[in-house]
Amino acid sequence: MEWDGGQVYRSEQRLVAQAAESEWSMWRRRFVELVLHFRSGAASFVYRDQLVRNVNAGHRALYVELEDLQAFDEELSDALRDSPGEVLAQMEAAAAEVVIRLRIGDGTETVAAEPQPQSRVDAASIQVCILSQEHPHPIRELQAAQLDRLTRVAGIVTAASKVRAKARLVTLMCRHCGHRRVMQASAGFGGFAVPRACERASEAQCPLDPYMVLADESRFADWQTVKLQELPEAVPTGEVPRSLLLTLDRHLVDQVTPGERISAVGIFSTYAGYAARSGSGARAVVAGADALVAAVRAPYLRVVGVRPAEDRRDRHPTFTPEEEEEMARFSRLPHLYETLARSMAPELWGLDDPKRAILCQLFGGSRKHLPDGMRLRGDINVLLLGDPSTAKSQLLKFTERVAPVSVYTSGKGSSGAGLTASVIRDAASGEFHLEGGAMVLADGGVVCIDEFDKMRVADRVAIHEAMEQQTISIAKAGITTVLNSRAAVLAAANPLFGSFDDARGAAEQIDFASTILSRFDLIFVIKDVRDDERDRTIAQHVLALHQRVNRLRLQSSPGGSLDDASDAFTPTDAVLAGAASTGASMLNADGLVPLDKLRRYIAYVRRHCAPRLSPEAAELLRTAYVHIRQDVRSAADDAPVPVPITVRQLESMVRLTEALAKMRLSSTATAADAEEALRLFRVATIAASRSGAVPAGALEGGLSSEFLLEVQAAEASIRRRLTIGALLSEQRLLQDLARHHLSTAAIHKALQVMLGRHEVEWRRQRTALYRVR
């Protein structure tokens, strides 16, 4: 026997490539079976019919629920989660093969059993979009372990770029020999590397870098980037919201707008980032950090499926049947309106009518679309105008927590662009894109604006359109568009001089233009009334609240116990009897609705109920509006009215009436709802428009209207006698004013008021007065 010594024979088996091709063929075959044979219950073929319908309509996309894929083929679902890029490519090829086999577009839908050539499959490209109802992964918890895996995130779109064309298949041609080569570009931020040597370099002796791109023969697809920010309710207190860059392509572009809440399914990936590409970011940290720049990459999500966060077409409803039944029982609870009102910020004593108004604001009226395309807003805007330390900010904070969608901001730290929208230049591409402000991000919810009076006038003017038309029109840097801002506004402000002055009229103390005041449905004037009995009640409530918190803390501590002191919140007998009769389980031991259940009930009602006015309610509102206009017109003859009464206020009463009907899940607003809406309107806006003419606080203190007029006349005389910057002794001032037949009591009261407003101040050991302003 002879051996071939020193010789080695090698056979190229391509076992790894063949195994991969075999696995890809298996995934393709299994997805073809899903499209052709999957049924949902007794329904027809879900994805087969969807594919036929979409392709015939010119929409070459197939939307697949991940849960359906999991139920039909668990192995294929697991493979998609672990290797989404490779498996998704095979699924799209399989969908294109199904289109050819079904002969869609030819008028026939007979299934061809034979496999199709790859060229025909490539020509009939179909985009497979993956949707899911899994719990979204928090953006701030995305880490390296999720790289190259399928994940689902949720958030608010804050910016969206223009749609651009991105190459998918690039045709290259050698400048020397004319050889052509087609290369595939990676998805997302990926690209392709141009070969430095021609494939025929050995034959034609082509130089290095011979290829040039033939754009006319290349294939492109629509491509867009989107900036997604964490949901406000998911951001920990004191933390800055995190953002994630998203890329969308083909049929997914232009599906989202800034301010919209979405959930996106995609492949968590990384890209070089602007700093690494430009060399100006990470290299500036330390010298010679090229290795660091190459190693550190920015994360992004290559989106393969997107839908609004609350999609009514969702087959997995947000509310379970048990929850819907519980809420239906709760809507029939006796004294429901009072129970809900008592559940609004129960730690705050009093403020019953402002709480009821905010409750109506949370439920909102019914949006209406007229035949000519005009929209009538259903959101209710409320302004709380009051003295310091009257719990206005606490009401705003509670509203932010209880509203399903909310954004809290302060007027002093907010600009017009921050409230509406701004145009930002992208540092990497130089292009302009939109970033939505607070009112855009709160679309479908409530915007809470504290310190509303501290805003600049120009910034308040910027939200006029957003408050009434509920849109924001942008025409900047070549971008002309309209954004939705369907949000209610809850604002809190102080009067012009810090606190209300009973000796002044309301028009002098409300420093807002009528254009902004008319856009508020309800305006509450909240005064810190000096009354001994009221002060004792408030002090008792505050102390009881602190004692209750201390008792609960003692009870939760090791070895702690709860004493027998009475609780600060006691449910009424009517509420407890109603809860027992209806079997409602949404009330706690205090007879109040917990915060989380109240939020869920508000979200459920806003989605499922849109009441309309009954004829009796409409007639009642019509008559009341005419009478209110007559009364205000008569009052305007004596003193200026700071809050105008226009047709907008009639629409405000309609929205309040509808909101009251919404609370009990009624489809019709009754006359009783209209009466309560009119009562709220009278104690709020009408009272605000008349406050100061004959102040209730002044009358309670024993001051007559004649004396108040004398005080106002004394103020005018003091201003004429004592110019700004002048100094005059008190004795000389009293002598001069006495010649105008003004009483000493009125003069002293006027001086007291002006000293409180810092218009004048004492000098020379309180013997002389100096005019400050």
What's the number of helices? 29
User: Based on helices, strands and strand pairing, what is the structural class?
Assistant: alpha/beta
Q: Quick one: overall form?
A: elongated
How many DSSP E strands?
Answer: 25
Mean pLDDT: 74
Based on the coordinates given, report the CATH architecture of the domain at 139-308: Beta Barrel
Largest sheet: 5 strands, mixed, barrel
State the main characteristics:
single-stranded DNA binding, 25 strands, 773 residues, 5-stranded mixed beta barrel, Arc Repressor Mutant, subunit A, mini-chromosome maintenance (MCM) complex, chain A, domain 1, alpha/beta
Descriptive overview:
- Belongs to the MCM family.
- This is DNA replication licensing factor MCM5.
- Component of the MCM2-7 complex.
- It catalyses: ATP + H2O = ADP + phosphate + H(+).
- This protein is α/β, with parallel strands linked by helices and 773 residues long.
- Among the domains are: 115 residues, mini-chromosome maintenance (MCM) complex, chain A, domain 1 (2-Layer Sandwich), CATH 3.30.1640.10; 170 residues, Nucleic acid-binding proteins (OB fold (Dihydrolipoamide Acetyltransferase, E2P)); 68 residues, Arc Repressor Mutant, subunit A (Orthogonal Bundle), CATH 1.10.10.
- Helix content is 40%, strand content 20%.
- The chain contains 29 helices and 25 strands.
- The strands form seven sheets. Strands 3-6-7-9-8 form a five-stranded mixed beta barrel.
